[in-house]
Design a protein that fits this description.
This protein is α/β, with parallel strands linked by helices. The protein is built from 10 helices and 14 strands. α5 runs antiparallel to α7. The protein is globular, with a radius of gyration of 20 Å. 36% of the residues are buried.
């Protein structure tokens, strides 16, 4: 959430709940060249833990990860997980830049859920208000200062230069939406423990949500309703998915309740967006994350909402070697946040 100041030699680091991922790019302009990328699993929700013991363990894990990664830069843009960030879009008075900045410093507390003196707050104008021509739309984000400072101290202690923190949602949209897209597109990133939903338009998020339902909840439903162990349930889910004709529809029946609950949350978001932006139409849904590989899930979403659905490609705005395209596409659904962080403009 800091502003980059002309520094182009940096990498994106995604400290995810189940894995660490890093991407380094080179070059300038909207399409940069892939320099290096790396992924390593991490267990126990350690990246979100506040305990000093876990922080020390995470410190060593990151050091080992970077040693193996092939990343050459020591400057980094780091993700802020959706569980710790509050992001919203507000309508605000159309004021000269200096007056707006001063006013926002005093008024931000009325929009964020945490005390202003304990929060790091950032904001950006993203366009004219669709409701009131005398106002502008402002994207407002806040995160607890204690969390940011703890993460900053940890990363600096291993020799990294943190030049920016950025919410997952902003990085996601930057990575999987075409850089020159002008029509509204939803990004649906279904992770292990939560789903990030972003609707981006003209290069900026206009709606962001963190839904506390992810792939683990779908697998849990399968385990519970099929009366099998979690490992077996996971195999069933990722082999048969939402195929009604697979295994006599038993897996479909076991998970459809959880998938439907998630779909209702998506539906509410679409309704909210279309009510606010009455003169625009959502163009498509881009699905990424673990559930993007769930058989027939994209088709289910397309049929449910009557929209085009595509599988997200984390390398959409990245130039990659021809001989590595298959390898990279196979891992694409994991790297959207890290790639988006690395694509951040200088």
């Amino acid at each position: 959430m800091n502003i980059l100041s002309g520094l182009s030699d940096f990498f994106g680091l995604d400290l995810g709940s189940t894995a660490l991922r890093a991407v380094q790019l080179r070059g300038s302009g909207p399409i940069k060249v892939l320099e290096a990328y790396h992924e390593s699993p991490v267990g126990g929700n350690i990246t979100l833990s506040d305990s000093k013991t876990d922080q020390q363990r995470l410190k060593q894990i990151i050091k080992d990860f970077l040693h193996q990664s092939g990343i050459s830069s020591r400057s980094v843009v780091v993700n802020l997980p959706s569980q710790r960030v509050f992001t919203t879009v507000i309508d605000y008075d159309r004021l000269p830049p200096e007056e707006l900045a001063q006013s926002m410093r005093y008024q931000a507390e009325s929009f964020i859920p945490t005390p202003i003196d304990k929060s790091k707050v950032d904001w950006a104008i993203i366009g004219d208000s669709p409701k009131d021509p005398s106002k502008v739309e402002v994207l407002l984000s806040s995160v607890p200062i204690e969390f940011v400072e703890s993460r900053l101290d940890l990363l600096e202690s291993i020799g990294l230069n943190v030049i920016a923190f950025e919410p997952d949602s902003l990085a996601l949209a930057r990575a999987v939406v075409a850089y020159d897209a002008t029509v509204p597109q939803m990004v649906l990133d279904i992770g292990d423990r939560a789903t990030d939903l972003v609707i981006a338009m003209n290069g900026a998020p206009h709606l962001t949500r963190a839904i506390p339902t992810g792939a683990e909840a779908i697998v849990h439903s399968a385990a519970q309703n099929l009366a099998v162990e979690t490992n077996q349930a996971e195999q069933f889910v990722y082999k048969f998915g939402l195929g009604k004709d697979k295994l006599e529809g038993k897996v479909y029946d076991a998970i459809i309740g959880t998938v439907d609950a998630l779909s209702k949350e998506i539906e509410q978001s679409i309704k909210f967006f279309q009510e606010r932006y009455a003169n625009t139409k959502l163009d498509r849904i881009i699905v990424t994350g673990r559930a993007s590989s769930l058989p027939e899930f994209p088709l289910y979403i397309a049929n449910r909402f009557g929209l085009n659905v595509e599988i997200g490609n984390s390398w959409r705005n990245v130039s990659v070697p021809v001989d590595r395209q298959d390898e990279l596409l196979a891992q694409s659904n994991h790297f959207a946040v890290a790639a988006g962080l690395a694509e951040r403009a200088e």
